[in-house]
């Protein structure tokens, strides 16, 4: 699906989200974790949740909506200015989804490769470690994407 | 009950949830699924991004699962669409916006849900999987 001009987006809620969030924050950042079936897949999703709590112009989006080609959520994602993807493992399924959409991912992580997290079946993960990784990624976003501008970003 | 450090086995029931962090209802599907698999040893979570990308190993696992329950957070029905695109047969479908009328709030409602709502979603999924195990 191609990025459309805002006025051509048929879904009202998506059009309003794009207009209002860009009006308020200027630039928006999509942050998503894969929420895969393993411990690290789930951990990746919870890391994204921690990040959007801390960075006002960072939002979790609906990247999977692009595959059934659902216009609203896909256009919201296509209109984000920066993209941060957190995959659980090196298969990088979520990053591949962004690539298929033609999006340039600004920061891409695989928890096994970047943070030596071991993949195991089941949803259990160490919450302390999850928060620690979230902090590291928040730091990266501030340094590499927001570049010192983050203090000027309005609250959500 | 879910056992820590157990070896990977194909579960008898697979939950395919949208787990979208973009909204309260999407988040609820994922949180409720975790609650379910902690309680039911024969239930596992399927990885929606890997299926959406057609990762062969994950698609093969999904096709071997005896029963699949698809849970979507909103009318866009992304999880169901991915399942149908792959030709994955599912035994039950729950759309929490439509079937149990939990309103989707936007645009930023990732964390806006209550314990009661988690319990409602979990109960509905539980009713469906109890017919299968």
Q: What would you note in describing this structure?
A:
The complex is a heterodimer of chains A (156) and B (133). By secondary structure, chain A is of the alpha/beta class. Chain A has one domain. Helix content of chain A is 46%, strand content 11%. Chain A has helices at 12-25, 39-54, 71-78, 93-100, 111-115, 127-146, and strands at 29-33, 58-59, 82-87, 107-110. In chain A, strands 2-1-3-4 form a four-stranded parallel sheet, with helices on both faces. In chain A, helix 4 (93-100) links the parallel strand 3 (82-87) and strand 4 (107-110). In chain A, helix 2 packs across helix 6 (127-146). The model of chain A has no long low-confidence stretch (mean pLDDT 93). With 133 residues, chain B is of the alpha/beta class. Chain B has one domain (13-130). Helix content of chain B is 41%, strand content 14%. Chain B has five helices and four strands, in the order βαβααβαβα. Chain B has a four-stranded parallel sheet, with helices on both faces. The chains are: A alpha/beta (156), B alpha/beta (133).
Keywords:
heterodimer; A: 156 residues; alpha/beta; four-stranded parallel beta sheet; globular; B: 133 residues
The gist of it:
The complex is a heterodimer of chains A (156) and B (133). Chain A has 156 residues and is α/β, with parallel strands linked by helices.
Secondary-structure content class of chain B? alpha/beta
What gross morphology of chain B would you assign? globular
Helical fraction of chain A: 40-55%
How far apart, in Å, are the first and last alpha carbons of chain B? 13 Å
What is the string of helix and strand elements of chain A? HEHEHEHEHH
Arithmetic mean pLDDT of chain A: 93
Mean pLDDT of chain B: 92
Give the N-to-C terminal Cα separation of chain A. 28 Å
Oligomerization: heterodimer
> Into which percentage range does the β-strand content of chain A fall?
5-15%
Q: Give the number of helices of chain B.
A: 5
Biggest sheet overview of chain B? 4 strands, parallel
Supply Rg of chain B: 14 Å
How are the strands ordered across the major sheet of chain A?
Answer: 2-1-3-4
Radius of gyration of chain A equals 15 Å
Report strand order across the widest sheet of chain B: 2-1-3-4
Query: Runs of chain A with pLDDT <50, length 5+?
Result: none
Secondary structure tally: strands of chain A: 4
Q: What is the total domain count of chain B?
A: 1
Instruction: Classify the secondary structure makeup of chain A into a structural class.
Output: alpha/beta
